[in-house]
Specification:
Layout (H helix, E strand, L loop, with lengths): L2 H13 L3 H10 L9 E3 L7 H5 L5 H23 L13 H9 L3 H6 L2 H8 L2 E7 L4 E7 L48 E6 L10 E9 L10 E5 L7 E3 L16 E6 L13 H9 L7 E5 L9 E4 L1 H9 L4 E11 L2 E10 L5 H4 L5 E5 L2 E6 L2 H6 L9 E6 L5 H7 L11 H15 L2 H14 L4 H18 L1 H6 L1 E3 L19 E4 L6 E5 L3 E8 L15 E5 L19 E6 L5 E8 L8 E8 L6 E10 L14 E3 L3 E6 L9 E2 H4 L7 E5 L7 E7 L3 H9 L5 H34 L12 H20 L2 H11 L1
């Protein structure tokens, strides 16, 4: 084939709207239709396991392509600076590389104009074209690009050492780029075009190849394999040309890499500037460089392009009005320190906008490697009313290489269930479960959510309470609970730009804090600086903790010079004018030993410094909770009657409050305050089933009230019973230490609400009998 014919073949594939058209091109082309002109992907005949062993979801798989594009940009910038990417004089982290090669950090990026951000983002583009239901996804980058005959060792290679000595890039395993292939239609077509973007670009050739799955023929073939096409000479197709019009966003292709994924199987194939944009922001929490999304299919009525820079920068930059609170933590777990950021979103913000099912994320260089859903907030942190509104990001970029290899899967889709991961999770849970701000906000939202009606309270005590006491059993026992006194909402805290004071709160004279030999202690520090001081883009401060060598015995715990490693210190805040330290000994220390801790908060006017003295105390026994303000009492969840519309001035909840229709029956409000307890059950008193029953039986007068009482009693009791049965089953699974795949994958409260939609169809027919109705009337009187 001559140059023009090769270029035409390339453009035929570029312009193919679907995999069906690609199949026709292959069939008509004598070179592509010859099986001898296809080579095993990565030169590995049995490559199916490697390809299918990547992420099981389409969007995280696509993220791998994007991180490769970011890597290509960084490597290109490094070479332009005249440096060898593998050299000792190059940055040792991605963050440092972005600052050195692009002159960017959080503050500088924050100050860029929208036009400048869009210009920067245009160097990495995600484009959707083709059919609305099965789009082709294009990934373009203006990175280093590759010479055509280098493809086998780069763009279509497996398990090579391409990036293992480059410390400022994300790639290391040389296989993540194949993660997208199982999502590329039925034939797994992927078109790859590249041109070296360095040196004398005009003399560089364009190269391209097509990747596909070969299922083989005949019974002797055990598994499929992936392969890519070559020309008749066994080489990558190459041609010379002026810059190519590949329908990129406001530019032609003159270097870098272009990859087209045919009929990519997105869960939601709608406008990518909407749903895919949200998902990319979630999975690329803090990308090193911004990304441009360009929608070719839906252009009418809105701007077809949108910059994606991750949930973190989105919260600080674009969506500040959606954020209720931002604060930081630093947790020490198994000798590794983890920076953690917590974002609390306002009550009216929809979960899908930022979090969806990713409440707790573990990221490396801004890419999420593992996540835990909203049950972590509701069940583990006991913040049921904040569920869906709290995003917690754990930065694992500083994790030692050996630990990273032990914990993270090469697919970057999850973390191994090892002791180090469990310890880290326990530390995070403890700090956030005890966080005063989250506890108080959760209680505030609970009070706003739970509508209390004196009429309902009487009903509960007279009818439902009697029935539950008669029934006895697990529910009656569980509902005897301890009422916790929640701190009243304090006056809104308004922090200052920089701290003007930094002082201990409630320490003994001499700044002494006792640490039980077998436990931990907490130190509180008051300050007036704003919550985001340590993580904001501009004028960021530092909180420095130094453990000094102990007095009175001990070996000093290692460490250099005057510092020791006797203690682990977790820090939370500043948050609402307070910094909290949790101090734990790494090993048993002698009673009476004193360990100084230097604490410093930086400030433009000079650092604020404190020193606390941790004194090892004798072991403490397990204390029983004794609080005169707490008392045992029999308590039932509130019953909330919900109507289609608000009545004649009488306070009540309506469908609009719950986003309900006539088909909904109930909603359970899970509690944050006590295990296996719900705060309230909302019952739809304008449901279709209740209305149909009353009309079909031609019930009138006082009997309507009797039927309504029967209905709400039945829904309330059955919901309560279902909830406790499901909850106990869930707790049993957890107690048996089943992994996530073996545990029940549901929220008990949500499953009850769903189940009641079906049960409501027969509920009244069973319960509305004469003897029971008389019993209800008697109890009510």
């Amino acid at each position: 084939m001559d140059n023009n014919a090769i270029k035409k073949l390339c453009f035929d594939l570029v312009n193919a709207p679907s995999e069906e058209q690609v199949a026709k091109i292959i069939e008509k082309n004598p070179i592509l239709n010859n099986g001898d002109n296809w080579r095993h992907y990565g030169d590995v005949p049995n490559n199916l396991g490697t390809v299918t062993g990547q992420s099981p979801q389409a969007v995280p798989s696509l993220i791998e392509k994007i991180t490769n594009s970011i890597d290509a940009q960084l490597i290109k910038a490094c070479r332009i600076k005249g440096k060898n990417p593998e050299g000792s004089d190059t940055p040792q982290s991605m963050e440092d590389a972005v600052e050195e090669f692009f002159g960017l950090n959080d503050a500088i990026y924050n100050d860029l104009s929208d036009a400048k951000r869009r210009e920067l983002a245009s160097d990495i583009q995600i484009i959707a074209e083709g059919f609305k239901t099965a789009p082709n996804i294009i990934i373009y980058d203006n990175g280093e690009g590759q010479h055509p005959q280098d493809f086998p060792n780069t763009l279509v290679s497996l398990n090579k050492n391409n990036k293992r000595k480059i410390f400022f890039v994300q790639g290391k395993y040389n296989m993540g780029g194949t993660a997208v292939l199982p999502f590329c239609g039925n034939n797994r077509y992927q078109l790859v075009i590249s041109k070296k973007n360095l040196g004398n670009k005009e003399n560089n050739l364009y190269g391209f190849t097509l990747v596909r799955r070969n299922r083989g023929f005949g019974e002797s073939v055990k598994v499929s394999w992936y392969e890519y096409c070559l020309n008749e000479d066994g080489r990558i197709f190459e041609f010379s040309s002026q810059p190519l019009d590949l329908k990129l966003f406001r530019r032609k292709f003159d270097g870098g890499t272009y990859i087209k994924l045919f009929n990519y199987d997105l869960r939601n194939p709608s406008d990518i500037t909407l749903d895919l944009w949200r998902e990319l922001n979630r999975y690329l929490y803090k990308p090193a460089l911004p990304i441009m999304l360009y929608e070719e299919r839906f252009k009418k009525g809105h701007t077809p392009s949108k910059v994606m820079h991750g949930n973190r920068m989105r919260c600080f930059l674009d969506a500040r009005e959606s954020v209720e609170k931002i604060f930081s933590l630093r947790i020490k777990s198994d000798k590794v320190e983890y920076p953690i950021e917590v974002f609390v979103f306002k009550k009216e913000v929809e979960t899908r906008d930022f979090i969806r099912d990713m409440a707790l994320v573990f990221n490396v260089n801004g890419q999420v490697q593992h996540s835990i859903d909203n049950r972590f907030v509701g069940q583990d942190l006991k913040k049921a009313y904040l569920k869906g509104h709290v995003l917690i990001s754990v930065d694992c970029s500083g994790m030692p290489r050996e630990l990273h290899e032990d914990i993270f899967m090469s697919s970057r889709s999850q973390m191994r269930d090892k002791i180090e991961f469990r310890n880290l999770l326990d530390n995070i849970t403890k700090e956030l479960k005890d966080n005063d701000y989250l506890t108080n906000l959760d209680e505030q939202w609970r009070k706003e959510e739970i509508f209390q009606n004196p009429k309902d309270e009487t009903f509960l005590k007279n009818i439902v309470g009697r029935l539950l006491r008669l029934a006895g059993g697990v529910i009656g026992r569980e509902l005897a609970k301890v009422k916790k006194e929640i701190e009243e909402k304090k006056e809104k805290f308004t922090g200052k730009r920089y701290p003007t004071y930094f002082r201990f709160k409630d320490l003994r004279p001499g700044n002494i804090k006792m640490l039980p030999q077998n436990g931990e202690c907490k130190i509180s520090i008051e300050t007036d600086v704003e919550d985001e001081y340590l993580i904001r883009p501009h004028d960021r401060g530092e909180l420095k903790i130094k453990i000094l060598r102990p007095y009175g015995g001990g070996d000093g715990g290692g460490g250099d010079g005057e510092y020791s490693q006797e203690l682990d210190v977790n820090t939370v805040g500043p948050c609402e004018g307070e910094v909290k330290l949790r101090v734990k000994a790494k090993k048993e220390l002698p009673i009476g030993e004193k360990v100084p801790i230097d604490i410093e908060m930086t400030s433009p006017d000079g650092p604020h410094t404190l020193t606390a003295y941790i004194v090892i105390d004798k072991p403490h026994g397990k204390s029983k909770e004794q609080d005169a303000n707490k008392k045992k009492e029999y308590s039932l969840p509130e019953l909330i009657e919900v109507y289609k519309e608000k009545g004649d001035g009488t306070p009540c909840k309506c469908w609009e409050d719950y986003d309900w229709s006539e088909l909904d029956i109930c909603k359970l409000h899970e509690s944050s305050r006590e295990d296996s307890l719900i705060d309230a059950i909302a019952v739809n008193m304008s449901s279709l089933e209740l209305d149909k029953f009353i009309r079909s039986r031609k019930i009138v007068g006082k009997q309507i009230e009797v039927v309504q009482r029967t209905y709400k009693t039945s829904v309330y009791l059955m919901s309560l019973v279902f909830y406790y049965e499901l909850y106990q089953r869930l707790k049993k699974d957890e107690a048996m230490d089943k992994n996530d795949d073996e545990r029940l994958q549901y929220e008990p409260a949500e499953l009850v609400s769903f189940t009641m939609k079906g049960l409501a169809k027969i509920l009244l027919h069973i319960m509305a009998n004469e003897s029971l109705l008389k019993e209800f009337e008697a109890v009510e009187e």
